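I hope you will forgive my troubling you with a question about protein structure. The record follows directly beneath this note:
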Amino acid sequence: MSDGVYLLRVTLRHDLGVETKPRFEQTQVQMLTTLDSARDDLARLLAAERAQATGPIVGGR
């Protein structure tokens, strides 16, 4: 979560022209890629947990 908050803060500062860091765009893309990957991992884990919680379907249901 803290990476997402950091990225939001840096992006807002960049948009306002308050603070610009060298290679901001490359850093932003890298962080977004990392956050997307983490979100996808969490989605897979959640799907696996849901499948485990419901268990196998018995009796053709």
The chain has two helices and no strands. The chain has a mean pLDDT of 81. The first helix runs from residue 2 to 16.
